[in-house]
Amino acid sequence: MSDFAEKARAAEAAMRTLFPATPLQRNAYLSERYEADIWLKREDLSPVRSYKIRGAFNAMRKVLEKDPTRSQFVCASAGNHAQGVAFVCQHFGVKGVIFMPVTTPQQKIDKTRVFGGENVTIRLIGDYFDETLAAAQSYCSDEGAHFLSPFDDPDVIEGQASVAVEMLAQMPNLPDEVILPVGGGGLSSGVTSYFNAAGVKTHISLVEPVGGPSLTAALEHGAPHTIAIKDTFVDGAAVARIGAKPFAILKSVKPEDVHLAPENRICVTIQEMLNIEGVVLEPAGALSIDVLRDLAESIKGKTVVCLTSGGNFDFERLPEVKERGMRYQGLKKYFILRMPQRPGALKDFLGLLGPDDDIARFEYLKKSARNYGSVLIGIETRDENHFPDLFARMEENGFAYRDITDDEVLSEFLI
């Protein structure tokens, strides 16, 4: 057993003073669906509903072992890392100063304050995370506080590796496959390091969101590379640049073992797990389950563990999740319709709709100086195959239209 494996085991053992091991549960629904033996490592059931508590605990524990007089820790985070740090600050009885962007939802601020109690001070600085991070690091320099990185820290990586120690102890047999989400790389590098150190031959698949593929970019460039985040929906994993220390561990990962999950498809997975299984997952927490669709053929008959990394989901986002999920499934489309400026034109159009077609959006601006008016219309249906028939009827009856469902620019301004 290597030094890293021993340290990860020590971290896992020390965590039992803070919280019990998170459950490892076989999921009958997913197992039947994918003809495999599928288990979920439920990090969404930790005290702060994410695995981030592990790295924060281990890093703080080791700092305090070296310097028991250290009394102040700092982090910059608008999400799970902040909550993990707050919880651990209260556990160790130290002061935590948590910097968050001004735009952070009040729900996240309140939860962080609850976890940290009187041990935590929250400072809202900056409209963007880069400004928040700079303020946090400047504060550390001025006050001599210890900065707790969310992923780019050996002790954090070691702490996240504790999830692998638990997982292997809980499994009746070694899994054939473990699927992990990737953001900054702390979790994936920790688990990968532990498997390598302990001689575990289980195959690891990694998944990151299409809108923030920081590991994919780093593998292409051979080093951490800053990317432009195209979609912030998977906020727990959409990281612009993977950590240098995690990438030093992950640089040998084969590109074909890194999968990209479309954000709208993740919405479908979130809804399925909520409606069918009663499991609440945040977007990043659903990544490992979502990618099962892409791995379906290769995992048949195998034992697979999906790590559900977090369950801090704001239910005010449910309408957005439903909307994006329906668009991915082809059950909802938006288009601009050219409506003739004549009496009865709208009635004629409505007559073209099928019994399962429902108008969900309608915006019409009549312009008296033109023969046609533009209509923004959104239609929901029960079967994606209804749309080709509807569009064919529209064309036969002289209704010109433009489908803008997947037009990012127009969708951003009109939908």
Give the SSE layout.
Layout: H1 3-15, E1 24-26, H2 28-34, E2 37-42, H3 52-66, E3 72-76, H4 80-92, E4 95-100, H5 106-116, E5 120-124, H6 129-143, E6 146-147, H7 154-160, H8 162-170, E7 177-181, H9 186-198, E8 203-209, H10 214-221, H11 244-250, E9 258-261, H12 263-277, H13 287-290, H14 292-299, E10 303-308, H15 318-329, E11 332-340, H16 345-350, E12 358-365, E13 372-380, H17 386-396, E14 401-403, H18 408-414
Parallel strand pairs: 2-10, 3-4, 3-6, 4-5, 7-8, 7-10, 8-9
Antiparallel strand pairs: 1-2, 11-13, 11-14, 12-13
Helix pairs in contact: 1-8, 1-9, 3-4, 3-7, 4-5, 7-9, 8-9, 9-11, 12-15
Note down, in words, how this protein is organized.
By secondary structure, the chain is α/β, with parallel strands linked by helices. The chain has three domains: 3-49 and 155-321, Rossmann fold (3-Layer(aba) Sandwich); 52-153, 3-Layer(aba) Sandwich (Rossmann fold); 331-414, Alpha-Beta Plaits (2-Layer Sandwich), CATH 3.30.70. 44% of the residues lie in helices and 19% in strands. The protein is built from 18 helices and 14 strands. It has helices at residues 3-15, 28-34, 52-66, 80-92, 106-116, 129-143, 154-160, 162-170, 186-198, 214-221, 244-250, 263-277, 287-290, 292-299, 318-329, 345-350, 386-396, 408-414, and strands spanning 24-26, 37-42, 72-76, 95-100, 120-124, 146-147, 177-181, 203-209, 258-261, 303-308, 332-340, 358-365, 372-380, 401-403. A six-stranded mixed beta sheet has the order 1-2-10-7-8-9, with helices on both faces. A hairpin with a 6-residue loop joins β12 and β13. α1 (3-15) crosses α9 and α12 crosses α15 (318-329). The longest helix is centred in the N-terminal third of the chain and has 15 residues, at 52-66. The mean pLDDT is 93.
